[in-house]
Design brief:
2 copies of one chain form a homodimer.
Chain A: E1 4-5, E2 7-9, H1 12-15, E3 19-22, E4 30-32, E5 37-40, E6 55-63, E7 70-77, E8 83-87, E9 93-98, E10 106-109, E11 115-118, E12 123-124, E13 128-129, E14 135-142, E15 149-159
Chain lengths: 160, 160
C-alpha cells in the first residue's frame, strides 16, 4: 500500500466531516460600522466539555514552518473539546485529518485567508504552517484534566 | 481643548485597564509537538454573559483599510461580553479605547503580531486595520439580546 497522500485545497464541503472553515466566504451576515465592516457570523461549532471543569480560552501558538513533502508521523485528538486555529499571517498551512488511526489521512491546504475549527474528537496532524510567521490564535478547551490522545503510525505517511 | 490624539505602541502595561494583548511574548508556557510549537496559554479573559442567553463564538470580520490621520466619530461598547480581535494578516491595526464617553481617547497601534481582547464593557473604536487583508477572527458573545451601546462625539477626534 502506498503511504503517500496528495494535498487538496481546503473547501467547506470536503472538510465538513472534520470541522468548520473560518473565512469570509459568501455574503456577510451583517454590515456594521457604517458600512465599513462585514460580519460573517458564528462560523465555528465550539464544543468544549464543562463537565470536566473546562472552559473556552484563547492561546497563541508559535509553530516552526514546514516544507513539502511533509512526513506525517503521528496524529492526535482532543476528546474534551473542539479546537480552532486562526492564522495570524495571510499564508497557507496544511490541515491533516483522519477518520480513524488506521484510515488513510486526508491533507488540505488553506488559501491564506482561512482558519479552521476541528470538531471535538477529530483525529488531526499537528500544526504545520508552510509560510509566514508561524503564529496562530487557538480557541480550545482550557482545563486541568487530560485532553490528548496520540497515535503514532507504524510507518510514516508522506504528504505532498 | 485639542481634539488630537497621538498613537502609541500597544503594550501589555498600557493596555491592561482595557483588555488583554494576545501575542507570543516571553517564554512559551508549554512546548508541544516534539519541540516544534510553543503554546502561550490562555491569554484572554473571556467574559460572556450567559444569563441573557449568550455563548462564546467565533466570527470573521472583513473591514475596510483606514489611513492616518484617522477621524474618530464614535466609540462603542458591549455590556454583555468581552470581544477579541485576531488579525489574519501580519499587519498593524489601530486600537482605540476610552475610559468614558467624555474622556480623551487613547490610541494604540499593534506591531503586526498582536491581537487584543477588550474587557467586557470597555469603550472602544470600531475595527481599523491600517494594512493587509482586513480580515479578523472575532471571539465574542453570540446571542439574541442587545449588546451594543454607541456614543457619537459632538466633535470628532483626530488620531495621528
Amino acid at each position: 500500500m502506498s503511504r503517500r497522500v496528495s494535498i487538496e485545497p481546503l473547501t467547506v464541503e470536503a472538510f465538513a466531516p472534520y470541522g468548520d472553515v473560518l473565512d469570509a466566504r459568501g455574503e456577510a451576515d451583517k454590515i456594521i460600522n457604517a458600512g465599513q465592516c462585514g460580519r460573517y457570523h458564528d462560523r465555528a461549532t465550539i464544543d468544549v466539555s464543562e463537565q470536566t471543569g473546562g472552559r473556552v480560552g484563547i492561546s497563541i501558538f508559535h509553530a516552526t514552518l514546514r516544507a513539502l513533502p511533509y512526513t506525517l508521523d503521528l496524529i492526535e485528538r482532543h476528546p474534551e473539546g473542539s479546537q480552532a486555529f486562526i492564522p495570524m499571517s495571510a499564508d497557507p498551512f496544511l490541515v491533516i485529518v483522519a477518520d480513524a488511526p488506521d484510515a488513510t489521512p486526508k491533507a488540505f491546504v488553506t488559501n491564506g485567508a482561512q482558519g479552521i475549527n476541528f470538531h471535538r474528537g477529530t483525529w488531526h496532524g499537528v500544526l504545520t504552517p508552510l509560510a509566514g510567521n508561524g503564529l496562530f490564535a487557538v480557541v480550545d478547551r482550557i482545563g486541568e484534566t487530560p485532553n490528548l490522545e496520540e497515535h503514532v503510525f507504524d510507518a510514516p505517511w508522506i504528504i505532498s
